[in-house]
Request: fold
Amino acid sequence: MGVQYFAGVDVGSATAKAVLVDAAGTICAHVVVPSGGNLTLAADRVLAAALERVGAVPGDIAALVATGYGRESVANRTKTVTEITCHAKGAHVLYPDARAVIDIGGQDSKAISLDAAGMIRKFEMNDKCAAGTGRFLEVMARTLEVPLDEVGPRALTADRPAKISSTCTVFAESEVISLLAQGETVERILAGLCLSISQRVNSLAMRAGMAPRVIMTGGVAKNTGVVRAIEKAVGLPLTVPDQPQIMGALGAALLARNEAVK
Amino acid sequence: MSNRMAKKVTNWTKEMALYSLLRATLAKRKLDQKISKALGSGKKSTGAKRIPIKTGDKMKLLMGRYYIRAKVAEKDPDQKIAWITSGGPVEILHAAGVIPIYPENHAAMIGTMRMADSCCATAEDQGYSRDLCSYARSDIGSILSKKSPIGGSPRPDFLVCCNNICGTVTKWYQELQRMFDVPLIMIDAPYQYGEDRPEAIDYVKAQLQEMIDQVSQITGRPFVWGKFEDTVRRSEQALQLWRDVQDMLAHRPAPMNSFDTFIHLAPIVTLRGTQECIGYYKMLQAEMEGRVRNGVAAVEGEKYRLGWDNLAIWYKIQFLAKKFGEHNAALVVSTYAKSFSYQAPYRDESDILRSMAANYIAGYINHGLDYRERELLEMAEKFHLDGFVMHSNRSCRAYSFGQYELARRLEEKHGLPTIMIEADQSDTRSWSDEQVGTRIDAFMESLAARKSNAIK
Ligand code: SF4
Reply:
């Protein structure tokens, strides 16, 4: 029998992520694919891709933990665990001194506070509304015709943020259009949007309780404009891992490893 | 036959005739079935694995009879009907032979039957703000659109509003007064920050005295003090029984889930002061005693015990009970069910009106944060709680205000974890199964981690 792997599959509203770790807990493969319309298919695809990277077959997976919005759509799962527990686990293992996690995904944002042992002290999630999430940024970027990965760098070049008062995605969109019509620069509007997200997230962060070191995870952590704005709002520096998107899947994989050890 | 007896007989025949007439019309419009459906049989227990509560059958009967009687009364000019707030001094109405109707109870039925969205929309179309409590919007919308799970509440002859639950009802009842053009009796119950103040009790007592005079003027009959005393006594007895039933949930495993207590609240809200109400809770008590004796658990394999703060989420009771049940979590106490069993610290047998006044300012939501913190802590201890579920209710600011601070105090000062569920008691538009489900799963995961760490 070859190497045994422990898999974490995180099916989010925008992307599906898979991480494989070995018995020592070392990351052997990680893959991100768009979720598309069919979550079960996305889960299959992302796991198959991860297995391919290490030249393994499904039979080599000793345990699989599914997490994320679409966790119930993952086939052959050993168990499901929520994103909150997985992000906390991933952050704690990578950064044992982590005391808080801010995660902004496609459809939700959350703030988690941890104790020294990595246990969740408290967590807060956004409400039903998509404001302050990746989806919000996507809609706005499209409205402004700015590629998503340019949003952060361009926002940082603004001399001041434009004032965006609506936190609702629908209202903010029309507000952005009227700002453009008034001749406001795209950069200032982008900076205004980053600020607006940071304010939303800050209220979650304050309720959950923040202390250094704060890890930021999720796809939006790649957006430097948002990261700087949150740092300012929270008043603490953020640590962004190399692959902020895979933290949930990593946590899941590590939990799968625990599961098998039990 | 004496004159009086003859009159009694004619009244009786009149009522019977009206009663059967109404029954027939109701049956024709399938209203009787509608009513029992709206009330729920109360039989469905709400654990993951359901064990029906038999007394629930009796509730269907009791509540059905109550609403039918009220509908009959609508056609009888001699029988007065008053609409009253849930925390109103209903004993005065019973003693004066007035039938009380509770718009909040009606609104809760609208919520349970998932008619709230459409009723609220009607009210919103008329200009009532979406930020107004969904009970007010549901009931006003139902009056305007005539959509109701029970064919509408019978028209009031007058209104009684006591603001010991919130400020919303003050405005809500003023609206009702405008709509129906009937007298409105207002009882102003001052908010209590610390210990209940004696001058506040005196102030409410004076208003109750005045209410008695107003009611007797409206009915055109003298107020019989003896009847009033009997009513108060019956009311107190029912409150005591309801308290006792709730206390039984301190038993491990809990014989009933708090989600069940939300359903079994209906009689104490609408029928307190009557003998039937006492009978009902005696029956429920006996059934629960049986369960405790036989070790019957509402939630199979009960592992976690949680408290609940704020109103029920009427359209999601089953969902929540199932979700928590899957984690072997039983909800064993709630500030909501307890709201209808408060007993003031002050009590004087020789001054029944003042004792009553004291009771009507003693409720949980008529109090400030320190009081609430103390209450929650007492519950945590008495019911051996592992955590508290806080329903942050968009509608009820009186209840939800301060919850974050309370949650902070419970966690930081007393190490009791809490979870916040953002929702609305009957307006489903701010609800998402997926998000709330994830929040609950994550909360239960963190409780499980705490427990296993504690054991290690
Ligand atoms: S605001 Fe709260 S207390 Fe007042 S009527 Fe609405 S639900 Fe009841």
